[in-house]
Amino acid sequence: MEALKVWSSRPRRHCFGLASSSPPPTSESYLPVTFIRCCSSSSTSAAAAPKQGGRDIRSSALSTSTSTSDINAIHPIRLKKVEELRSKGFEPYAYSPPPEHHHPLPSSSKTSLISLPLPPKPAPPPPITATNPTTDLQEKLFYLDSVGIDLIPLLTTHPPLITTSLSHIKSTITFLSTTIPLPPPALNRLVSLCPEILTLPLSSIISTITFLLREAHVRSHHLRRVIHRRPRLLTSDVKTRLRPTLYFLQGTIGISEINKHTHLLSCSVEDKLLPRIEYFNENIGIPYSDTMLIFRRFPSLFCYSIKENLEPKFNYFVVEMGRDSRELVEFPQYFSFSLENRIKPRHRRCSEKGVCLPLPAMLRSSEKRFLERLEVCCDSSMPMRNSPFWYYTHGDD
Fold first, then answer.
1. Nearest by Cα to 331 from 302, 306, 307, 297
2. 36 vs 90, more confident
3. Which residues contact 119 (CB under 8 A, 6 or more apart)?
């Protein structure tokens, strides 16, 4: 019986490693070889292979009908070969991955190899079915038009509406019209003033409504009126805007009934509330305690513009009317009246008659009531020193 002959470009220790009972990891790339047994038994025959490099190359599969005697004859030879390799420092049965940089087999090799099947190629991704933007925009247009909202002007003020899904818009409209609930005219006004309400997550709107009901103590039957007066509340973040403003108005200013002034909750403390406090305290010169009293008595003063409202009215109050700033502490509603249509005309009539009415009596009353009071003051005698009118007509004299 002839000895085993193996031809391969791999090291011999790799060939003997393949004979182990446990196959090598499939993740490593390896080149399996075929062991060729040559014997003189008549039960098996080896096919002749062409010569290459001065050696005979034979390739055949092991016969399944190998007899027990043949196996017993091969076993000593294989053990002897293993001992030789082990004496040279090789471990035949320990698998060692092949080196990464090896010389590939020549393309002209005719060695018979057992090729393992390659892993299947990943299936190609399913084709992306892109929706028609024109069709999607038309569906949004038709739906919003059915609830009384015109989409075309909203796209110019809030372009993200183009990419917002129709299902999200439907869920938001349904929530606003059923939970608050807002009638179609109020819903149209809300979307027109704040189109970003249609692109906000529904969870953000729910958290705002929960804040108004639980922390600002807005009654459920007043929620529609609160949202209608200040739609910006629904688009304001609770953590960064609504709750800090609530704490400032309650803690610093001292406003107890915040549910009557919910329109202030969407204002920024740093950008809107503090500059108006500084104007009365630093520019006008009103003490800080009286400034807090002014805003506690009339919180809507936070919404007035400094340059367009507070400054011109205060300058007229001091220069033309010649009054003391203490009257503003008692009656800060003075800044809520129109300078051209109410304050100037009535002050001129009082000046012509030589009468100095208190600010509430001069500004709050209707035109008819104001003229009646003015006539009474002109036809009556001079007020007594202990009368409240003495101070407003004679000052500190």
1. 297
2. 90
3. none
